Amino acid sequence: MKNPYAKAYFIQSAPTLAKCPPDEGIEIAFAGRSNAGKSSALNTLTQQKNLARTSKTPGRTQLINFFRVDDELKLVDLPGYGFAKVPLELKKKWQHHLAHYLEARQALVGLILLMDSRHPLTEYDEQMLNMAEAAGLRIHILLTKADKLKPSVATRTLQAVQNALEAGQLEATVQLFSATKRQGIEGLIEILNLWREEA
Ligand code: GDP
């Protein structure tokens, strides 16, 4: 399968919506709790060993990081949420900037939310899903590190997450993903291609 995302390159970091690049073209954002496997997924998608390392360098972990795919499309690495040992006030400030970006960004068409398949749908994930839904975004969930689960358990987890979303009347697609095994990359590329076509 052709991978148009392999050419992505880092362009800019921004602490707030006001500091983001011009709000034009199409953006697709990636979010997840720290350690969910977001960097690994972005590196696998873009076929680059260190692309997402940019977002992990000191000082950048709480910034919105932009990667350009082509003239029209950018991928956006959102700050990892949940684990950082920082004062509550600072966390609230970050959350405010994140919510602001999700709500107000015209170029943003969808959110890829990454969750560790061994413990999906945490409270933080629910918050993120609610924010994305309120912002009218398309939502696709990657259940990461699927290689760590037995195939039967992985299938059950996928089903359970789909059921939970349905029960909560939340419209989102879900798939299993493993950066290590390169599992699910085609599915992810299809979603990105689709969102881009629809935008
Ligand atoms: P981030 O904090 O969300 O960017 O997460 P990372 O991509 O840095 O991954 C966190 C940890 O999970 C690292 O130790 C990775 O090696 C590991 N990891 C990430 N993806 C996978 C995967 O698909 N399979 C396995 N087994 N480990 C993974």
Q: Which keywords apply here?
A:
199 residues, 7 strands, 35% helix, binds guanosine-5'-diphosphate
Q: Distance between termini?
A: 22 Å
What would you call the structural class? Answer: alpha/beta
The residue-averaged pLDDT reads 93
Radius of gyration: 16 Å
Ligands, ions, cofactors:
guanosine-5'-diphosphate
Counted beta strands: 7
Q: In percent terms, what proportion of residues is strand?
A: 15-25%
Structural summary, described in words:
The chain is of the alpha/beta class and 199 residues long. Helices cover 35% and strands 22% of the residues. It is built from 5 helices and 7 strands. The chain has helices at residues 38-46, 88-104, 123-134, 151-167, 185-198; strands at residues 9-14, 26-32, 64-68, 73-77, 108-116, 138-144, 173-176. The protein has a 7-stranded mixed sheet, sandwiched between helices. The two termini are 22 Å apart. 37% of the residues are buried. Guanosine-5'-diphosphate binds at residues 32, 34-40, 80, 144-145, 147-148, 178-180.
